[in-house]
Design brief:
The protein is α+β, with helices and mostly antiparallel strands. Helix content is about 40%, strand content about 25%. The mean pLDDT is about 95.
Length: about 200
């Protein structure tokens, strides 16, 4: 089976695994059989994993997504679907969904960030302006920065060099601002800074 298959006892210790489980986790079968759910789950997902297992014990089925510790030291994501086999044994199916989670995180990140510079984008800037358009944030200062000659620079040296220039400018602007200032790239050569405090 392409999915990792785990059988655990009532304590969450692994008592059997299939070959796919060893491929997904990087651990040998012998190593996994000395481990438990707690051993393989990352610290920040431990509470979620415990809740999934609690639900499994109480209702006989559970599912969810948690981060696990791969043998190579990386943190990866997997989906879990589990059912009760008997009073003391539970069967779980896992699939590595790390790439899917990364794609989702990137989609969320780039909905409010500029792809080239990593700064906030126009959409985020406009949303923040609406949010700050109330009296408690006044006075509100906005800096608008327009880079002159970018087209000429791109035409002379190429867009790759122009992109490097934009990244350098973005970095310089960010370093010149406070941590809570909102720095955005709102156009090809236009940057803004909202000084909200």
């Amino acid at each position: 089976a392409p999915d990792g298959v785990f059988i655990v006892d009532e304590t969450g210790s692994y008592i059997d695994v299939n070959n796919a489980a060893t491929k997904i986790t990087g651990y040998s079968r012998e190593e996994l059989l000395k481990m438990s759910i707690k051993d393989i789950t990352t610290e920040n997902s431990l509470r979620d994993a415990q809740e999934i297992f609690r639900k499994l014990v109480n209702t006989g089925f559970a599912n969810g997504m948690v981060q696990y510790k791969h043998k190579n030291g990386s943190s990866r994501w997997w989906s879990i679907d589990a059912v009760r086999l008997s009073d003391l044994h539970y069967l779980g199916f896992t699939s590595d969904i790390t790439e899917k989670k990364k794609a989702e995180e990137d989609l969320i990140f780039y909905s409010y960030h500029d792809y080239l510079t990593g700064l906030y984008n126009r959409r985020f800037f406009e949303d923040k302006l609406k949010e700050f358009d109330i009296e408690k944030y006044f006075p509100l200062s906005i800096i608008v920065i327009d880079i002159n000659g970018l087209k000429l620079f791109n035409d002379s040296f190429g867009h790759d060099i122009g992109d490097q220039l934009l990244k350098t400018i973005a970095d310089k602007i960010t370093k010149g601002c406070r941590a809570y200032d909102i720095v955005s790239r709102i156009g090809g050569d236009e940057f803004t800074v909202i000084l909200a405090r």
